[in-house]
Amino acid sequence: MRDIAVVGGGPAGAMCGERLARSGYSVTIYDEHLAWEKPCGGGLTHKAIKAYPFLLDGPYPKKLIRTVELISSKGHRAQLTLDHPIVIYSRTVLNGLLLERAEAAGCRVVRSRVNHIDAEGERAKLTIGENRVEADFVVIAAGARNSLLPDTSRLMRSDLEMTLGYFVPAQAEGISVKFLRGFEGYLWSFPRCDHLSVGICGSMARHTSQELRRHLHAFMAEERISRDGAQFYSHVLPSPQQQTLSARRVVGRNWALVGDAAAWVDPITGEGLYYALRSGDLLAQAVIAGKPREYPARVRKAFSADLEFATRIARRFYRGRFLGGAVATRMIQFIERSPTFRALMADVFGGAQDYCSLKRRLWAQCGTTLAEVVGSLTKRQAALAKSAPATSTENLQ
Ligand SMILES: Cc1cc2nc3c(=O)[nH]c(=O)nc-3n(C[C@H](O)[C@H](O)[C@H](O)COP(=O)(O)OP(=O)(O)OC[C@H]3O[C@@H](n4cnc5c(N)ncnc54)[C@H](O)[C@@H]3O)c2cc1C
């Protein structure tokens, strides 16, 4: 296996191509846009930076964010301070730098749309306009809106989220995230170097685009984010079911899916950039080892078991109730009142805490968290009780 075709030059395809070319493979990356402003928040968490430090160290323009404000459906607000910054790129810059690295490693980068892949024969055949090209192996990195699936199932509506948003010509220093009542998804504002990416994501099976647009406009009005001069975007985002992660075929004899095409996205946060980079990297390692069939097992060990665990708590997180209130609202109230819980959630949002060990950490800290919450509430009651007579004295005066 020497000639590799990569369809899609986003993070997954560019990373896979770079790794293979560095090991001496002859790699051609086809992308219909090359570096473009793909609808995205552009946020890279700590686990992405730890695995790929050049994303922090390189000279490319990016914004480092250390505060995240969480807003409940009832308007409670809590702020997280991150030990490790979230690094936010414009996607034109991020895709551009990854493609540059791939090219420097020896990849041929071609601006073309691939219309069809035939993986029936010994070699894969790609149709590109009027032309046909062949490759020993084809990496399908064409994102979530992808119909180039040789021998596997399509993603269902229940595996997808709809996203709508605006690139807004404004500046901010922190990320804002708002949850809505009975809504599987959230609203966000992500500051980039010279604009904001503001948007909403919601389950495609449960919510309509009109509903999303109404919530988005209400959020922007509440947060005083003007739509003047803003550029609208919409896209789909995988939000895989457990069955999709565990059973969908992602590799065949001469093809494999990576990134969004394989639905490797966190079903709670919508984080996909890390999984796109990592899956591209892991597929390249399996091919270089001469064992492409081992790719799913490598992914499972690296992150898909964690994503499967996340699918089991995603619905409970967005729709469940805890102590008589919505889970997200209680989470925000606990963050406000408990420094221990606040530190834990900062690690979750910053990408330093995985889901599999989250439950253990929650239980281990449960006593301290509850003591801090009760202590904070008692202090508040005492302060209120103290201020009440003062107010009544003032009133009497
Ligand atoms: C609104 C929104 C906000 C998001 N915010 C974040 C975030 O803040 N942080 C995060 O980690 N993740 C975020 N994500 C997820 C993230 O954008 C994706 O997980 C990531 O882009 C996946 O990378 P990829 O390389 O698999 O696919 P893509 O980035 O989608 O790249 C696919 C590439 O394939 C090309 N292509 C498609 N079809 C063809 C074809 N037929 N022929 C040739 N080329 C083709 C496209 O031009 C594209 O460049 C967000 C997603 C959305 C929709």
What report would you give on this structure?
This protein is α/β, with parallel strands linked by helices. It has 3 domains: 1-42 and 89-154 and 242-315, FAD/NAD(P)-binding domain, CATH 3.50.50; 156-239, D-Amino Acid Oxidase, subunit A, domain 2 (D-Amino Acid Oxidase, Chain A, domain 2, 2-Layer Sandwich); 325-396, no CATH class. Helix content is 40%, strand content 25%. It contains 11 helices and 18 strands. The protein has helices at 11-22, 46-51, 54-57, 91-105, 209-222, 242-247, 273-288, 295-319, 327-337, 339-350, 358-396, and strands at residues 3-7, 26-31, 43-44, 63-71, 77-88, 108-111, 116-118, 124-128, 131-135, 137-140, 160-168, 175-179, 185-191, 196-203, 231-238, 255-257, 321-322, 325-326. The strands form 4 sheets. The chain has an 8-stranded mixed β-sheet. The N and C termini lie far apart (90 Å). It binds flavin-adenine dinucleotide (FAD). Flavin-adenine dinucleotide is lined by residues 7-13, 30-33, 38-43, 113-114, 141-143, 146, 148, 163, 165, 190, 199, 235, 237, 259-261, 265, 270-274, 276.
